[in-house]
TrEMBL record:
The reaction(s) this protein catalyses: adenosine(1518)/adenosine(1519) in 16S rRNA + 4 S-adenosyl-L-methionine = N(6)-dimethyladenosine(1518)/N(6)-dimethyladenosine(1519) in 16S rRNA + 4 S-adenosyl-L-homocysteine + 4 H(+)
Keywords, ordered alphabetically: Cytoplasm, Methyltransferase, RNA-binding, rRNA processing, S-adenosyl-L-methionine, Transferase
The protein's role, per its UniProt record: Specifically dimethylates two adjacent adenosines (A1518 and A1519) in the loop of a conserved hairpin near the 3'-end of 16S rRNA in the 30S particle. May play a critical role in biogenesis of 30S subunits.
Gene name in the database record: rsmA
Keyword Acyltransferase: no
CDD domains: AdoMet_MTases (cd02440)
Residues engaged in binding S-adenosyl-L-methionine: 14, 16, 41, 62, 86, 104
Subcellular localization: Cytoplasm
Main location as per UniProt: cytoplasm
Protein name in UniProt: Ribosomal RNA small subunit methyltransferase A
Domain Ribosomal RNA adenine methylase transferase N-terminal: 21-189
Family: Belongs to the class I-like SAM-binding methyltransferase superfamily. rRNA adenine N(6)-methyltransferase family. RsmA subfamily.
Enzyme Commission designation: 2.1.1.182
Amino acid sequence: MHQGHIARKRFGQNFLTDKAVIYQIISAIAPKPGENIVEIGPGLGALTVPLQAACGHLQVVEIDRDLIARLKETWSPAQITINEGDALKFDFGSLPAPLRVVGNLPYNISTPLLFHLASFSGHVQDMTFMLQKEVVDRMVAEPDSAEYGRLSVMLQYRFNMVSLFDVPPTAFKPAPKVTSAIVSMQPKAASECACRDEALFAKVVTAAFGQRRKTLRNTLRDYVSDADFVALEINPQARGETLSLQDYVHIADYLAGRKALV
């Protein structure tokens, strides 16, 4: 319990209370007056207070009715616009662009939420999130590492990402069982995200990492023949985690080109 509010497990609530960590996060975001900042899951306002003070007007997305009531008591509509509902279903494209998105993301929905947010990358200036360190490590992972996987490839396609610093469990109430980390995400220019068929690219990446121990010949058998591997100059005995983002774009573009010829 904290400030009269009981953290709800189903919403993945852990409230940030360490003032030094809060200052460090706000310094990393560097909010400025007039910027279009949206905070996902403001909770009890640890980041909300300094963010609103810096930018003047803040958008927030919150699902917990008790916390929404508390926000309405604390802030005027001129200070904060409260978007009530689930961030997983929220249309971030409905907010003024370019958006700066920040938040201590609920760990239980972090991966689907990151994929949801990625679909609005053209509407976004940058995103700064606190997540489970394990998730951040996967987001920024290099090929041929244990952490590298579908999340790494799909997010690195759209964003340049940097893990900024770790946050210990003691910075929260209740303390989570895991260490957290702050990640900065900058959308890439549209010219950098130039895969010919992004839906096909996503399918290939998903298939390649579907069974990590299997070779690409097995995981991609529905898409790539032995002759295709030769044409692509990719070893069919390799595993999905050995290929770079550029390799996956190359495969998808090759398959899209072949499809266009049929």
